[in-house]
Amino acid sequence: MSQDQSQNLQNIPIQVTDTLVFDDFASMKERFAAHMKEIDEEMTRLSKSLEGQSAKTQSGTTTSKGPLILDFLSNSRLIESEGENRKLKLQFDVSQFDASEITVTIQDNKLTVSATHEGITDSSTTVRQYQREFHFPQGIDPKTIVSSLSKDGVLVIEAPLTISTEKPVPK
């Protein structure tokens, strides 16, 4: 990583909370797995769309100088609230890791969640790793991103959205 890149890299602190994402113990594991799979699929779809939008903006194929227009955000399950209170809410299943083993960083609108667990016994060493990336829309202020880790191992990352989902009026 070059010095320029490392200067843009920001760690996002993780707040450990006493909350549970799933509070009913019956069938919790199956519901948890199904919920996390749905969220993961939506995050992947949205991140790919945002990555493509970012590539278009960087290559100069879009000419808007105002807020980024992203119609597909308004229909995403990852968006909470409405109007000026809208926020992007991401969830990651890191239940197999301690909070101290999890790192959340952002660099150039790309969020990275990584975790490493090393189990050492007398006869072996086991390493378990997790890494996910998510491309945020342009205009997200990294200082406004917050993360929290629930008791049941769900890392929740929230970022306020200041992006317009309205279509521009042609001039």
From TrEMBL:
Q: Which Pfam families match?
A: HSP20
| Composition bias, Polar residues | 46-65
Lineage: superkingdom: Eukaryota
Residue ranges occupied by any SHSP domain in the UniProt entry = 69-171
Picking any one GO biological process from the record gives:
response to heat
Region Disordered, annotated ranges:
44-66
Q: Which GO terms describe its molecular function?
A: unfolded protein binding
Write out the GO cellular component annotations. cytoplasm; nucleus
**Sequence similarity:** Belongs to the small heat shock protein (HSP20) family.
| Annotated protein name in UniProt | Jg19259 protein
Task: Give the classification, highest ranks.
Answer: Eukaryota, Metazoa, Ecdysozoa, Arthropoda, Hexapoda
